[in-house]
Every structure is written in C-alpha cells, then in structure tokens.
Design a protein that fits this description.
The protein is of the alpha+beta class. The protein has a domain at 159-304: 60s Ribosomal Protein L30, Chain: A. Helix content is 67%, strand content 11%. It is built from six helices and five strands. It has a five-stranded mixed beta sheet with strand order 1-2-5-3-4. β1 and β2 form a beta hairpin. α2 (25-158) packs across α6 and α3 (193-206) crosses α4 (233-252). The longest helix has 134 residues, at 25-158. It is rod-shaped, with a radius of gyration of 66 Å. It starts with a helix and ends with a helix.
Length: 307
C-alpha cells in the first residue's frame, strides 16, 4: 500500500515547472524551498499518524493474542470443569444406584426384622403369660398363709388368750400354744377339755386349706420328764405332739396326710431355762403350717412345660 505522500509528488512537480517557467530562478528556488518545507511537514505529519496507527495496530494485535491465550486458557479450564462435572455426575449416579440397592436391601431387612419382632413378641407374650401364672401360684400360696394367720389370730384374740402366738415366717405360719393349755402337768396322753376347744378352732381353720401341711412340734424345758416311763425330753415332746395329731384326726376330722409329728425336746428353747418364766415359754406345742415346696415346684413346672 502506497503512502498518501506519493500522490502529492507529481502535483508538486508540475507546479514547480509552471513556476519555474514564470518566475526567476531566485524566486523559483524560494518557491521550491517553501514547497519543500510544506511537503516535508505534511510528510512528517502523515508519518506521525502512520506510526500512531501502527502502534495502535500492534496494541490491538497484542490484545488479540492475549485474548486468544485467555480464551485457550478458559477453554482448558472449561475442559477441566467439564471433566469434573462428568466425574461428579458419575459419582452421583453411582450413589443413586447404591441408594436404590440399599433401599431395596433395607426394605428386605426391615421386613425380616418385623417378622422377627412379631415372633419375639409372641414368644414374650407366651412367657409373660406363664410368668403371670407362676406369680399367681406364689401369690395364692402367700394369700393362703396370710388368711390362715389372720383367722388364727382372730380366734385366739377373741378368747383373750394372749399367751398363744401366731407369727408368719417367710413361707410359713407358726402357731405357738403353751403346753399347759393343752395338757396337765407331766401328761402326754390326753388333751384337757379347754385344750380340745383350742384344737377344734384350729382344725376348723386348717380344714379350709387342704393344700396346707401342718407339722405339730413338741418342745420342753431342760427339766427331767419326771417319770421313768419317758426315756427323755425327746420322747416326752414327741408323745405330746403325737397326742395332738391323734386328736385332730380322730376328733376333728383333719386329713392325716396333712399332719406330721416332731419332738424337739429341750433343744430349741425360746428363752433361758434359768428362770421359771423361761421354762414356761419353752414348754409348748408349735403348729408349723406351710405349703410344701415340692408341690409349688411341681405346679410351676407344669406351667412352664417342664416334666
């Protein structure tokens, strides 16, 4: 591309010839100098403009290259982002698949768990029913003993017999009657009339509880029996307890299978034998009333299904 100042030169030349032909040499030279100066100013001005435009062009080209570099860089970053996005998408799809499988597995596990829980609930309900029945047996035994204790205490309180005692010890009731309320002194073979009244009341209460077992236990103080016919206090206490049992069965229709006799002699004293009051307390007949552990255990085993 030709610079604009090349278009000015032919015109300048023609104009110079014209001037040259019309004016003197001196004037001609002066005109030429003037034109030359003017033309050089125009050329310098155009050169300056050219340089400015070239600088602007170079700047634009540099910006273009920078933009291309930036674009390429952004394109590279975009590719990385696209790759990351695709990777994340794949992870999401994998997780969704796992969650679906997990949901299916969870549903199956939940269904199985519900079945197991239902089975366990049925088993627990059955065991609870058995436990309630066992508790019922034990509670029934407890109520029986409480009833016997209450009835005996009421009877003897109504007779103002303060020397007769009724106590409850764990799984049994113990009725304590002083020997002199049942026997004459040194007697073992026959119960006195007032003693029969006591035995009648005792039998009336105990006959209402055929499941109860009654041990009739004779006790003495440490004195000698006082007669050669008694071998010792064991023999003496055993004969007294046997007489009481015989009377309960023969006179008051108690079941003999509920009754047993025991003679303890002087070996389970309630008080010291060093005083007369102590000796009186130690001479006694005890009625130990309970339901046999074997019977309770048998009933409980029946409930829980053990042979």
């Amino acid at each position: 591309m030709k610079h604009p100042f090349f278009k000015i030169t032919p015109t300048l030349l023609v104009f110079s010839i014209f001037i040259f032909g019309c004016v003197s040499k001196k004037k001609h030279l002066a005109a030429i100098q003037t034109l030359k100066s003017t033309n050089e100013g125009i050329v310098d001005d155009w050169q300056k403009r050219y340089n400015e435009k070239r600088s602007e062009l170079n700047t634009s080209e540099e910006k273009g290259r920078q933009l291309e570099l930036n674009l390429a860089e952004r394109k590279g970053e975009n590719n990385i982002l696209v790759g990351l996005r695709n990777e994340l998408q794949l992870q999401i799809e994998t997780m969704e698949s796992q969650m679906t499988n997990l949901g299916s597995s969870s549903q199956t596990a939940e269904s199985n768990l519900r079945k197991d829980i239902k089975t366990k609930e049925s088993e627990i309900a059955a065991l609870q029913k058995k436990l309630n029945e066992v508790d019922g047996v034990l509670e029934g035994n407890k109520k029986m003993l409480q009833q016997i204790s209450s009835d005996l205490a009421f009877e003897f309180q109504s007779m103002n017999l303060n020397s007769v005692e009724v106590t409850t010890r764990l799984d049994k009731v113990v009725l304590i009657i002083p020997s002199d309320l049942l026997f004459r002194k040194r007697s073992t073979s026959r119960v006195i009339t007032s003693g029969n009244t006591l035995l009648e009341k005792v039998s009336n209460i105990l006959n209402r509880h055929p499941q109860a077992i009654i041990q009739v236990v004779g006790h003495t103080d440490n004195s000698s029996p006082g007669s050669k016919k008694f071998l010792d206090n064991w023999n003496y206490s055993s004969l007294q307890s046997a007489t009481v049992v015989r009377s309960l069965v023969g006179d008051y229709d108690m079941n003999a299978s509920q009754l047993s006799t025991v003679g303890k002699g002087e070996y389970e004293p309630r008080a010291s034998n060093s005083t007369q009051d102590g000796k009186t307390m130690n001479r006694r007949i005890e009625f130990v009333i309970f339901q046999p552990t074997e019977d309770l255990a048998k009933e409980i085993k029946r409930i829980i299904g053990e042979s």
